[in-house]
Structures are given as C-alpha cells and as structure tokens.
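The following block was generated as part of the benchmark described in Methods. Ligand: iron/sulfur cluster.
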Amino acid sequence: MSPQHSSQPGLYLHIPFCSAVCPYCDFAVMHAAEAKRKRFVEHLLAEVALAAGAWRDPRPFDTVYFGGGTPSLLPPEDLGRVLDACRRHLTLASPAPWVYLEANPEDVTPDACAAWRRLGVRTLSLGVQSFSDDVLRFLGRRHTGNQARAAVEVAHAAGFDTVSVDLIFGLPGETPEAWRRELATAVALSPGHLSCYQLTIHPRTRFGVGAARGELTELPDADQAELFDLTHRFLGEAGWPAYEVSNFAKSPDHESRHNRKYWDHTPYLGLGPSAHSFAVGDASVRPRGAGDTGAAVGARRWWNEARIPRWERRVAAGERPVEGEELLGPQALATETLMLGLRTTAGVDLDDFAARYGLDLLATNDALVASLVADGRMVLRNGPEGRRLLPTSLGLAVADGLAATFDVSLPS
Ligand code: SF4
C-alpha cells in the first residue's frame, strides 16, 4: 500500500474568509475584517476542544488540511495556535502529520513560506486559476498572471514537498488554444501537483445571476468535453498523469494523501463552518453479517452549520455546531464506493468490494462491463493484486454517469 493510501483519519479545518468573494464561488466563505477573523480563530480553537470529546477513532490523524476560503489570509501565528490546539486535544501522527495549506498567490512571499514551513506545511496548494490577466479579471481574482508564476517559483524555492497549482477551465468562450497555453505555462513551472476544475455556474452566485439574465453563456457540453480530453491528453503526455478526474501528479509521491481519504471512505473530521466529517463503524448501521466478523461497514457523515454567525453562536454556547447527519448503510456505501472508485485511476478493487458488500460487481454487470471495455471506457485488470475495474480517460470523462449504469443492488 502506498503512503497515499493510509487508513488513518484526516483532519480538515475550514477557514471561511477570502479577500473578495469570487463571482463563481458557492463555498461557505465571506470577506471579513481582521477583528472578525481573530474572533473566528478563537471559536475554531474552542471547536477543536469540543470535537475531541466526540471523535471516537483512537488512531492518529496523519493529514491536516487547512482549506477554505483562503487560509493564507490568517497570520501564521494563528494557524500555529490552531495546530497546537489540535495537538493538545486530538491525536496527531508522530512525528508529524502531513499538513496542507491553501494559499492565494498574492499571499505567497518568501517570509510567509518560511513561516508556513516552520509550522510543518508540506503541501502548499496555490489558487492560481489562470495565468492570463484577462481571465483572472473575469474570474474576479486579485492576483495577476505574473504574480501567479512568481508564487509558484517562491514556493518551490521555499522547499515544500509538493507545490500544487489549481486551474479552472471551461470558461465562457474559452478555446482549446487558450486552455493549452494555460496548461503549458503550468507545466513549465513544474509543480508536483495540478488540479484542473471545470467551471460550474451555480445559480446563487454572481455568475449564476448573470447566466439567468443571459449576460453569460456557459460553454456548450461538447466544447467542455473537448477541453477535458485536452487536459488529460496534454498533462498525461507532459508527465503529469491523472490519478483522479480533476487531479494530476508528477509522481505518486505528489498525489494528495488527504483527498484520497475522501475517495476511499477513510474517516475524516472536519471543523469550521460547513465542514463535513465521516466515521465508519457506527454500531447503529452495522451491516448484515458483520457482527460475526467484527467488520463494521456502516458509517456516519455529518456536517457543520455553514452560516458563520450560527456556527459561532453554537460553539460559544459549548455545543458542537453540527447541522445535519446521515447514516450510511451497506447499500449507500457500496453505491458510493463504486462512484468514487470510478473517479480515480486506481478504479474499484472488485475482490475487496465483494468481501465488504457481498456483491460480485462483475457477475451482476457482466454484459455492461463487456460493452464498456469494448468501447474503451474501462479496463478490467486481473493481476496478482486481484481484480480491478479501471476507468480509461474516456471513462473518467463520464465517471459519474458510468457509475449510475451499474446494478449495485445488494442481495437481500
Ligand atoms: S478564493 Fe476560492 S474560496 Fe475564496 S471566494 Fe474565490 S473561489 Fe471562493
């Protein structure tokens, strides 16, 4: 098992502030003055202590992810206080967990990088989005293309284990040539990791309102598909093969250990407004037959209040700020396992799937798998490590739709 496949839990800390809210963003974020950010940090410290009493998994967290929002807006001293609280109240891996920090290019300076490195940050994830000033203006970003390039270089010089670059494609009117230029610029900077996200226009954003008024036209599906295909071909040939629908790494060492947990059903604890958590083995959802083996497959997912004032009020009252939860029995978990697996190039381990859920996916979907293999969307590998169903890049392009065509009904 590679280090990217650890079964130890991960910790996510949501920092909900941005210097300006981008017109396409539907995350739980806001612009806030320094006093508000300071107050937030005090509440986050309190939530860490509250969570410690409720988190039952005794294994140490081996990843800590500062996401948002823009965590780089918080002073390093405050990030350090949060990490200290995590060390005090929760169990972090020894000698240190792998710490991730999302940063905006305009916050990346040699001094800031040195401070983040002293905190133990190993992956710096840069919200570059584009290297073109026109595109950055359209996206409402505050940095320029030159600042984005400089940020990657400064981060490299600071010695992070992995520098990751986020890009967005599929903008209204974007051509393959323009997108190819973005990819070429990114590759020339040689980051360890790249994330390429397709622009989604959410209704309750400024872009969504513009689209509803006809001021903004989404790129047609066929053009989106062409850009997706270009991304995978270009990065694969350049030496950054995909390991997930939107994620590309120069080598397996640069793959995200933390995000892998979301795709593998590995437990994670999320703190901060809107953060999600996931724990396995809840006795109330123990699946059929599992009592005999002790292999608990049931799970629980819960999420925090997204509205910052509510989240703060509940934390201040000494309450965990959980807004909702769902219990996942074997059927829901089996369906998710297939869906998440088909979004990664590691695919679905068919023997593990059968052992967990009592369903041989291949036997119940033989005609479907045969046709998917025949039309180049999937590969069936039968090697010393067992049987695996792997999506090709054609399959990755339609991963969610593919998963929906499978019969995953567990035997009653
Ligand atoms: S920087 Fe990221 S999280 Fe913040 S508003 Fe823009 S897209 Fe949203």
